[in-house]
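request received
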Amino acid sequence: MTTSALLSARQQKMLSAIRVIPKGRVASYGQIAYRAGFPGCARQVGQVLRDCSEEHSIPWHRVVRANGKLAFLDASEAFLEQCRRLKKEGVEVIHGRVPMKYFSVVLDLDAELWGMP
DNA sequence: AATATGACATGCT
DNA sequence: AAGCATGCCATAT
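response:
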């Protein structure tokens, strides 16, 4: 919980970037930071999610690590909840990992067009 | 004021 | 593969 309960311009831009991730797709912390205009600040994305995911009703479950793995400890409550939410919107989660090649907001064009690796 | 911590990422070994 | 070092920076101590 932030003491100020106020968000910096930076944090708000990060939240905005998260809000526009389409349903059925995921984005990495780094991608969000980059789109928000702060490349290299992936860690701060995790920070705003931790502090503001509840009170701002953002699709926090659509944010995963660059390698596709969920950021939570395996079998933790948050981990399971994220799995549920992702699967509910059609995103595969295999062994705690999302196949980024098919579900990332940044897709390989061949995979997108031809559905092949 | 100084140090530690963390829903991360990337490069090097 | 798996670990380590470093970059990032808001918060908490």
